[in-house]
Structure formats: C-alpha cells, structure tokens
Amino acid sequence: MKQEMTSRPTQQSCAKMAANTNGKRASCNDSDLDCNEKRRTRAQTRKIRSEIFENPSTTRMTFMTWDVDPIVTQHIYDDLGVREILVDDDIVEKLRPTPPIMVNNGLFPPKPRKVETVHSHPGESRLRPLQQTTPCRWMSRKHDRQKNDSTMGQVPWERLSDELLLSVFSWLNKRDLSRCMMVCSRWHNVGLDESLWGRIDLSGKALRPAALGYLVARGVTVLRLARTDVCSPVFHDEMGLNCLSVQECPLKLQYLDLSMSNIEASSVNEILRLCSRLVKLSLESCSVSGETLRYIGQCSDLDTLNLAMCTGIGEDHEAMAYMMQQCNKLKSLNIAWTNLNYPTLAAAVSNLPRCLEHLNLSGFRSLLTDEAVYMVVQRCPGLIELDVSDSSLLTPTTLETLINGLPSLRHLALSRCYHINTAYLVNLGAMPKLATLEVFGILCEIGIANLKELLPRVKVNTRLFSTVARPTTGYRWTSIWGLKCPNM
What's the superkingdom here (predicted)? Predict the structure, then answer.
C-alpha cells in the first residue's frame, strides 16, 4: 500500500513535468517564429533603404491625402443637430494648408543623411551616418565674407578711393604716416600729398644728412626746428634742387623757426636759397653770414624777421643795407644783441621800411645814440612797440623824440638806460596810447610805486623779456607765431 501511495504522486508529478515541458517547447517555437518575423522585417526595411539611397531615380513616389467617409460624417452631423456648410471646390483648395505627404512604398522615408558602408564582420555590411562637424560661428561668417567678396584677391583697403584714404591718413601723426607709406606704392603716393605735411615740429631732434631736404620737398609750409641738430648737406644731389634758381624754386615753406638750432651757416644759406616764399623767419642764436642776409633780401614777402643774438653779420654793412631795402614789407624786426659795428647799425637804421610796427634794438650799449633813435622815429612813425634797452648813451632827449614822433606807441622798453633821468619818465604820460613801460634796473621799488601812481593807466615792468618777432612767447611752446605745429 505504501508503495502504491508513493508511486501515485510520482506519476502525477511526471505528468505535470511533461506538460510543462511541452508548454515550454511550444513557447520556444512561438518566440522563434517572432524572431524570424522580426529579422525578415528588418531585412526588408534595410533592403528598401538601400534601394532608396543607391538608386533614387527608380524610387516611385506616391501621394497620400487625408479624408473621411461622407456617410460617417453625415451621421455625426445628425447626432450633433447641425448640417454641413457647402463651399465651392476652389475655396476648399485654397483653404487646405496641409501639403501632400510623400510616401515611399507605403513607408515614411527617413531624414536624408550622408552614409558610409561599414564592414563589422566578414560578409556583412551596414550603414551608419557620417560624422559631420559644424564650423564655428566666426568661421562661418568669415567664409560668408570671403564668398560674398566680388573682388577676389583684393583686401577692403584697396577698394577705398584716394580721397577716403587721404582722409584716414590725415588723422595719423607724422611718424605713423611715414610707416604707412612703406606698405605699398599706392599708399606711398597718397602719403606724399601736401595737405598731410603742412605743419611739422622737429624741435629738439637730430636730423641726418638730406633728411630735412626730403621733408621740406613734400610741401611743408610751417616748420619748427628750434634746438635741432641739422647735419649737412640739407639737400641731396639726387633731388635735383641744387641746380635750381630762386625763381624756379618748388618749395612752399613760409614759416621757419631755426632758433637756437645747431646748424652751419652754409646749410642756412642752402635752405634760404630755395625758400623765397618765406613770410616769417627766426634765426635767433644761429651762425649766419653776409650771404645769408642777401638770401633773406630775396624773400620779398617777408614781414617778420628775428636775428637776435646772431653771429657773423657784424661787419657786412652792404649786405645789411641790401636786406633792408629789399624787405620793404617788414612789420616786425629783432636785431638785438647782434654785435653790429657802427656802420652796419647805421645801414640798418637808415634803411628801415616805413611800414615797420615792432622793433627791437636792445643790446647796443655804446652804439645806439639819440641821433639813431631820431632816425628810427623819422623812418617809422607808425611804431607800436619799441625796445631800446641796454643802451647807455641815450639821454632824456630820446624821450622828447618819442613823445613827439610816435603817437601810436603802446609798448616802450627803457631797461638799464642809466643816463635817462627818472624825473623825465613822468612826461611819458603825454603819450595817449602808451600801455606798458619797462624800466628794469633804473628805479628802485619805491620809485616804481611812485611811477605807478603818477601814470595810473600805464602798466610798469610787466615783461621781463622782449617778444618782438619771436616765434614762441609765453606758454605756447608748441606753436610758432600763433600757428600750432604737430610734433613729429
């Protein structure tokens, strides 16, 4: 009995195990069928895609539109209690916004992509998209600019006209302009325009030989060379200027300041020989010669001349007389402390132009006399400013001459004229336009205070140095005769 009882469960369990095994086998068969179906579907899809990309011309495109069965639509309208609005077919076509969808054999095509064939296993190939890198934003913009440029091989600067390029160069200083002229021949030609080189300041610099000549030949009109070292020669033989005469002179220099510059007399003559258009000239503290005065006389338009403290013209009275006779348009003249001898000073005084308004004759200690001042008053009755300081031979007679002969005089300098009695200075109040009076070294502080009370409308001792015909006065060290010169 026990054996039968034990055998029965064993048979039941075996039956169950057999049923489970059959079920598993059936499920495995079903799963195998599904896998095979999926594999066939994938292979078919892969084949269709390969045909699309390999032979796009053979692909047949169909159009599909969306529509609803009219019977079903009528039932829906009846249930809602509404009726269909009839519209013309033309209007329906216009109101239909959705374009037809292109379908390839009933399947939606994928997004077009560049593909490459990759062999992962022998005899097997599959498709994968190419890795395309998108350029940066600045790279794309640069590419667009290069693509849109109609003039290939040209930079934007070359498309500018000469007028626009000239206006750009006008904002540069002379050093940067010289560097730009070395870029190309076109920039060099534009940079040689005379409007860019009108005013130049080379004060305190050292110039190599012929450098000044090349600079002046560009059309400079205002040139400041104060305290400048100028090496000889000024003009190079290749420039072709040495063989020209004054009438054939191409230089346009009008304002020249050579005050306290280190330059030879021959170089000064070389410049003045070709600069016959000078209007204002300053050779203060320079070494000159009689030939220099003759070249100055050829400047017929000269109206301001500063020869203060010049050396080398003390004994050439003929050249001084020639210069004074030719420069008949002079309005400002400064020949202070030039160490002239008496014949040369007499030649200068007796040939002064009648249009002279500003005159400086200071520094002639034992040469300037009352007779010389009287001649000055007779030659130049329209003087506005007169400086006769450091003249020890002048007497109160000079004051009477000035009061009677110069009614337009506004500034008078009598500093260190020790032979003029201080009591006669009060008589200067009779001059109607006298505004300033310089009497340094004559009166003490108490005497100056008393003189100010006796002459209330005259300012006493306001100028320590004379400003007659000098290019730079006061704090305006970057300009000459009121014209601003840009630094090089």
Answer: Eukaryota
